[in-house]
Amino acid sequence: MNKQPNRLAIEALQLAETDNVLELGVGSGWALEKLSQAARRGRIWGIDQSADMLAMAASRSTARVSLARARFEALPFPDGAFDKVLAVNVAYFFADDGREFREARRVLGPGGRMAMYISDRATLAGWPFAREDTHRSYDMDELIAAIARGGFTPDEVDVTPVRLPLGVSGLLAILAKNS
Ligand SMILES: C[S@@+](CC[C@H](N)C(=O)[O-])C[C@H]1O[C@@H](n2cnc3c(N)ncnc32)[C@H](O)[C@@H]1O
Description:
By secondary structure, the chain is α/β, with parallel strands linked by helices. The chain has helices at residues 3-13, 30-38, 51-59, 99-107, 121-124, 140-149; strands at residues 21-24, 44-48, 65-69, 82-88, 108-119, 157-164, 168-176. Strand 6 (157-164) and strand 7 (168-176) form a beta hairpin. The site of S-adenosylmethionine has 14 residues, from loops.
């Protein structure tokens, strides 16, 4: 079920061969493989707070993929280190104050692009494992407001509702860092 939103978000990144790409929350590492195939001459980084997830991702990674144990709100990279940032099914774990969006924006270079996907509140309501005390849910306005708290200006943000198989509805956000 995670493949389709990852495919959508990776497509939205408009990857170039030489892009340096960061994935926030790598999970099993499925997207890292796709990122390294598309950005064939770039450097691919993935971070996750979970050692178990990083181990699983490492088992399917190539030499151009680097992994680090880190949290979304404290990325171990200098300003402007990446051309693209992928963030699929991770904003459920973001704080209210926009700090993770701010961090993602910081590590993007000018002209950089971030693509993120979350299943929306209506879909999460049907998932017993995604309760409000573990997963932050959003409707479109709330997501746009959270992104704005992270420092992206309105002209940098494009959020689209998406429909996926099995009745899943979500939000695909493309965040372009203008300068
Ligand atoms: C729902 S999974 C999504 C994984 C993958 N992006 C996908 O689409 O299949 C969320 C991932 O984020 C990681 N995670 C959750 N909170 C985190 C945080 N604050 N900092 C870093 N990683 C975090 C989890 O360990 C998990 O691997």
